[in-house]
Amino acid sequence: MTQDYYKQKIEQLTETLLDQFESSFNKFENYLDSLINSTDSINSNYQQIAFPSVNVPQTNFENLNFAQQLFREIQPLIKQNVNNQVKHKKKPIYQEQNLQMLGVKQNMTLEFQKLKIEKIQNQMEQKVSDKDVLLQQSNKNKSLLYNQSNSELFETIQTNNQSNFQSFTYQLVSKYSISQNECCRAIAINKDCSIVLAGCGKEIKVFEFKQGFMKQIQILSEHNNDVHTLNFMKKSNQFISGSYQSIIIWQYNQNNLWVTQQILNGHNSWIYCLILNNNEDLIISGGSDNTIKFWTKKNEWTCQQTVKDHFNSVFGLSLNQQQNKVVSCGNDKQILIIEQQRQNKEWIVIQKITVELSTLRVRFIENDMFILSQCGQDQISIFEMNSINKQFTKTKDIVVKCGSDGYCLFPSQYINSKSILLMKNGEYVNLIKKKQNGQYLTEQSIHFGTNVLFGGISDDGEYLITWENKSKEIQLRRYNEQ
């Protein structure tokens, strides 16, 4: 074969290599452009940075000065690519001419490679420089956006805190007062504030309730003695009443009347306190027979268990949020912590706390925290569970107003949506705000001038309804923020 033939082949091979290098370079250049373009997504997405619940994709630009290292890494790859392509070409007939061609080709390739690397280096340095400018601008934008977001977030938190710490009062609406001469020892409001019950002596008066106005629609006379407790169910159209020895389950029938569904007999004296669990398949009752009874429902309600650790009347009961602990208080100056066992579901007394005076009211306000009211005291106490030994101990006292005391009825209530604790103490109804920092502030102490005082508050905290023997009226007070 002639010298011109080999020269032509060398030129063809060189042209092929040039095309391959150009293609590789274009791909590499496009990759660099994609890195630059990725900074745009930072500005568009950074507005989410103030909110940790959102995952913001971020590009790591800590190693932007990687050009020299990249050059060192791609140079042997380029050489290897050239050698591989030469290796797989068909060998010429004459070895000497083949070696000559290879030497010429390698020299051309090296010169071309050198030029291309210089070009790549110059362009990469320019791109890195441009990227640094973009990154500086991006950081500046992020800083501005971060400060703006934090400012908005701070304003939001401040607004929420102001709402949480908003002062309030319950204002008497005199036009809605109802004259009631007979003592009303229990009052309850249903979940949507459409029905009010009042235990007036042996009778239960049912009122239709519309924006504060109460209209009597029915009188229930099944109890033989004074009604002491009333509790609406929230999942069904039923309520429960407690009196002397008996508990009655009431249901709303097709004729729009409340009728007796079942009577529970088990206590042998007065029932002073009664609570329901969230599932409404457990009733817990306590009274002057010194017992706490646990009633469960399958086809009908039956007494599952009786706790007899109190040695005097049981005045107060409360379930924690997890529904696995009950706290009780009573006239024996004892507080019982009763826990449900996981295996056999039996309720076991796990702690007894002795205090100085009779305890009238108790209420869980958190899963492992309850508040206690002792007879005639101008303070209420907070008990919290120690995380190590799992025992409840008193951690603080809250100053309230009281006056003369002696009645255990009118159970305490905690309105979670408003963080309001209602505690009847003697002649006063104290309304206490639980703050986010764990502090408690008595916002209002309503003085009724008598301790013969009973009532209840709606689940949303909008209405407080009371009866006392001084005015002998069922009175309505409405929540009002100041």
From TrEMBL:
Taxonomic superkingdom: Eukaryota
A single BP term in Gene Ontology: iron-sulfur cluster assembly
GO CC terms of this entry: cytosolic [4Fe-4S] assembly targeting complex
Annotated coiled-coil segments of the chain: 110-137
WD repeats: 264-295
A Pfam family that the UniProt record links to this protein: WD40
Alphabetical UniProt keywords: Coiled coil, WD repeat
Designated name of the protein: WD40-repeat-containing domain
